[in-house]
Amino acid sequence: MIDLEIPGKLRSFVELANAVADGYFRPISRKYDRAEHTYPHELDLLQAAFDGLSGSGELGGAGAAATGGQKKERDPNEVVNGANMSTVLGVTELCWGDAGLLLTMPGQGLGNAAIAAVADDEQKERFGNKWAAMAITEPEAGSDSAAIRTTARLDGDSWVLNGEKIYVTCGERADLIVVWATLDPNAGRAAIKSFVVERGTPGMKLLRLDKKMGIRASDTAVIGFEDCRIPRNNLLGSEEVASAKKGFAGVMKTFDNTRPMVAGMALGVARAALERLRTLLSDADVKQRYGGSIHSGSNAEAELHRMEAELEAARLLTLKAAWMADNRIPNSLEASVCKAKAARVGNAITLRAVELAGASGYAERELLEKWARDSKILDIFEGTQQIQMLIIARRLLGKRSSELR
Amino acid sequence: MANPVLRGGLRLLSAFASSGLAERYGVEDQAKDLVTRAALLGVDLLQRGGSKARPSGSSDGRRQRFDLTPTESQELLRTTLRRFAAEVLRPAASEADETLRPPEDVLSMAAEIGLTDFAIPESFGGAAEERSPLTTALLAEELAHGDMALALALLSPMSVAHLVQDHGTETQKRELLGRLCGEDQVLASAALLEARPLFDPRKLKTKAKAQGKGYRLSGEKTLVPLGELSRFFLVSAELAGVGPRLFVVERDQPGLDLSPEPAMGLRGANLCRMKLRDVELSGAALLGTPDAHDHQRVIDLARVAWGALAVGQCRAVLDYVKPYCNDRIAFGEPISNRQSVAFLIADMRIEIDGMRLLTWRAAARAERGKSFTREAHLLAVQASQKAMKIGTDGVQLLGGAGFICEHPVELWYRHLRAVGVMEGALSA
Prior knowledge:
Distance between the termini of chain A: 40 Å
Shape of chain B: globular
Strand order of the largest sheet of chain A: 1-4-5-8
Number of helices of chain B: 14
Radius of gyration of chain B: 26 Å
Helix content of chain B: 40-55%
Helix content of chain A: 40-55%
Strand content of chain B: 5-15%
Structural class of chain A: alpha+beta
Largest sheet of chain B: 7 strands, mixed
Number of strands of chain A: 8
Largest interface: A-B, 74 and 96 residues
Oligomer: heterodimer
Structural class of chain B: alpha+beta
Shape of chain A: globular
Number of strands of chain B: 9
Number of helices of chain A: 12
Strand content of chain A: 5-15%
Largest sheet of chain A: 4 strands, mixed
Radius of gyration of chain A: 21 Å
């Protein structure tokens, strides 16, 4: 039965996440925007609380759990509002507080999502409780992740990694790095595998931390691998190149879960900006009213309406993608649809909010300018706007990537 | 949604963590435990306070789920109307556009499948299980996938039936709903729009004056669907000293004049200008009672219906441009191999689904008796922009061919401009 309200059983969880964002993230938001590369140690305390909550079952499974298999048998006719939806909702609220801080929450890295999705039981046992970052991008391979040049060579009972990774979120802080490397640079995507490297492994070196426009609370590392030797069973998935087409598809599949999450992040940042703008405009006697003509009213009011309408459409698309995942309906297309829509709308709203708020929006006195910097990355990582459009268009038009490039 | 206790506590803990006191005094573990317990307490408080704090307050609050699955009967109706739209409406669209009215056989086939009956409860002779704006939205989308003008024509009597159910007295329901269904059903439509820039449906220049036991109506309505075909109309007018009200006006009423008013699009819906010159009505002509009428609901449900029409017609555009752009060869390959073409199509898909979800949410809230003025407003704002863009892009993607009437995209371009213009006329 069609119903698009937040599910009743998740409402108190959303309220809790919002309370954390408001009471815990917002007060230190500016501090870590200024103190880039300083670990927000306040998060340790929060992580402990989250662990406690997860243990109590109150969170209904958030973070990495989203990509894990559902264990319980269930009635196939029963509609599920599960881990994917609660993750998207939670992430939205926390990013309403601060996107950079969420990205550097211990134990919530993208590598954790990959491990949860692909690791075998033994690996889950070894790596499951550690904080894992994800290293895919290279200086010469961005959106084209099949073009990576980092190599993995089998030597006895070890893999030997060589190459350089950039844009590694939490690369300095995480316990583990999940590294994409190729077994054979000439074999294309079939030979690409992911490997788990523990921090402190000889041959893995933190080369530098990038200075960034936004999400400064989160560290972004450049990591080098020079004859970095790891145990053979640190490879996630199958070793065989022959069956690896499936393997690459497998690692790409984690995006079906992470893209709605990033869409959720964009929704949170944009809502923060829109709400603040509404308050500032209200103080300037611009009220947003509903129900009358959509064409009359001031330009500022019309802008508020347009932004809110875009945000609401993006929000519902994101919930739809999560709902599909929870109910095991294939959602690759919807994951890209919501990511494309939420990320571009989110960025546009934060920027417009700065403009309409005037000098108050541009100055550091408000967080509006920070949100406008933070939101840009959300239209870039986990697949840029253009990549999402390619995915959607290829799917709609029945094109191969060699046809629609 | 603020919980002051929880929020205050979290702020305090944040300050505590920032201060470094916990580390310095070696009480980190105790502090972590404290945070966990505070958070758990917060959850507990929120849940126990839930029934009080939550506006819905319903006992099934925790069982309520986010779901996008239509019911079985909705799905069945959808499939049926999808065929009807493809086999009956689409082929008739062009003729209707030229003759300025729906072809006779389209109307008779609609009557035959008992379309309006789906808007009328069984107790009044119809076939509806319940009053359902959601079902209306699903059905409107399918009809508009065939043709938006004909969808408007067919939905007009249904909309009158909805308005009568929502606002009429029991006597009016029995009498008017009975005329709209069954063997001898008549056509009817709603006249809500007035011709002026920045029209606000809450501020009407058509006036109603109480006169003895009845009313006298004067004014002018515009773009009234089925103007020459409806047996009776629901006309909105400002009742002096009271506010906007709906009145039942029979077509043979002295002082009522209807004349064709062709527009850019939606011509197949027989749009007419309606002039009311001292039209004398009985007291029973006022829909409902003078002191109780929710006019905002009239406006909001119209927006839901127009949103659904926009989604259906935009989907038709998307379905049309996909094969066209795949087949059209330029520079040695299909034009859909170009990102500038393909991305316009991808955008259509994104925005259509967004509009559909906005429509469904407003409709679902209406159906469950929740406020939906905000949702309907946002839908209207979004649909007026996105529907027009999709209509425009549809023509652009076909290039010169899109401008020629051999392809339907120019018709849809003209139809879709109406989404930002039409207020009223329909009710989901």
